[in-house]
Amino acid sequence: RGILLAKNEAVALKDRMQKEVESINVGVNLSSPKQLIELLYTQKKLPILKRTKTGAPSTDNEVLEQLNDPVVDSILKHRSFTKGVAMVDSYLESVNSQDIIHPNINTNHAATGRESSSNPNMQNISKDSTIYKYAVPARCCFRARPGHVWFLKDYSSVEMRLGVQGTKSKRLIELISNDFDFHDATAKAFFKDRYTNATGPLKKDLRGKAKNVRFAMFYGAGIGLVCKMLGLPADEVKKGMDEDKQQFPEIYDFMHSCTRFAEKNGYIETFFGRRLRVPEDRPYVATDYCIQGSAAGVLKRAQIRVDEYLRFKTKDAVRLLLPVHDELIIEFPRTLFEYKEEILNDIDRIMCTFKEITVPMKVETEYTTTLWSKAVDYVA
Fold it and tell me: Model pTM?
């Protein structure tokens, strides 16, 4: 089927980012780590927060974001928009004469079994952000075909749900069945009143950091990494981790059991019984492999089931276009709108029912009649 490029929007976005890049002038080549080090740490005398393996001061984005200087803004903008221009170029170079892109879907390139795509990469299509001002709104480059609507079916908190399944805890399963927000609880444990009293974008940002840390801890992150991710001192992180462990000891027991199993056997099993080899020197990634591998198994099975259902039910009039992480993009012709509730409900059921998965699964739906970037929540 392929996915339709919104060519005018793509060209306009590329031109806009290119002009921003060309307007940046800080007196050095921003693509040269050596010149950046000279600018930041010799001329500006900014603090060195991290060093590379060779001992040189780090110029990673996560380091730069902690430095308070106007030149850092220029560097981050240059990096983001330069990458954005290349991203949009890859879309423009991949279209056929009808402006359709047919990316390659790589089903098993990742060690965890997760899918990826290439020529072009359609798995990391960034969107606009209220938190990061130099985010590339690349989703404006794609649109539904005329006479069609996109429905975007996205698994809700699939990794957290699968992590809960791994614990086999009736208490946690009941919590997640009642839509308990584990990431909200993690944010409260680490940020305390700063999170509780926050509103708007700040609260969303803090919850997002807590969510990332939840999964980082799932996958073996220690205090040092968590400190960097949250921007908190070690003593506060230690208290937050202790509180989190008191709240959810089952999660930590699951993590330890995965690590011990991998150390003994050299592999971990997904909930579908697939064995994934775990590196001997990194047994702590076993939890990651179990959860990510199981999530991969969920989405792959969902793709096949949904595709078979649509072929049978609609004779290919409704089409599955693309898997994106934990989401399926479905293109729906307006001529079949009288049947859309039945079909969408069937898709939800198909995506959420697996004999191997005992925790309740949930799918959220967005839709757009035009650009992907304009997708909003769908309410029947």
Answer: 0.89
Distances (CA, A) of 370 to 135, 158, 292, 300, 364: 21, 27, 32, 27, 19
For β-strands 142-143 and 327-333, DSSP reports them as: unpaired
Q: What is the pLDDT of residue 124?
A: 80
φ/ψ region of 323 (left if φ > 0, alpha if ψ in -120 to 50, else beta) reads beta
pLDDT digit string (tens) for 215-247?
888 777 888 888 888 888 999 999 999 999 999
The 10s digit of each residue's pLDDT in 267-305 is 999 999 999 999 999 999 999 999 999 999 999 999 999
**Amino acid in position 233:** P
- 329: Cβ contacts below 8 Å, ≥ 6 apart: 3, 150, 151, 152, 320, 321, 322, 323
Give the span between the Cα atoms of 310 and 316, in whole angstroms.
6
The strand pair at 3-5 and 104-106 is best described as unpaired
Residue 57 DSSP label = B
pLDDT above 60 (res 130): no
Phi, psi at residue 341, to the nearest 5°?
A: -65, -45
What is d(CA 213, CA 227) in angstroms, rounded to the nearest whole number? 10
Rounded to 10 deg, the angle between the 286-314 and 158-167 helix axes is 120
- Helices 286-314 and 200-218, interaxial angle, to 10°? 110
Token representation of residue 357: 């998965």
Q: Whose CA is closest to 154, among 356, 310, 307, 378?
A: 378
Say which residue the tokens 């937050």 belong to.
Answer: 240
Tokens of 59: 């110029």
Taking Cα atoms as reference points, which of 325, 261, 250, 326 lies closest to residue 287? 261
Six-digit token string for 31: 């693509």
Per-residue exposure over 243-262, b if at least 16 CB sit within 10 Å of its own CB, e if not: bbeeebebbbebbebbbebb
**18 burial level (CB within 10 Å; 0-12, 13-18, 19+):** middle
Do residues 234 and 255 touch, judged by C-beta distance below 8 A?
Answer: no
> Which pLDDT score, from 0 to 100, does residue 131 have?
58
On whether the CB atoms of residues 7 and 105 are closer than 8 A, the answer is: no
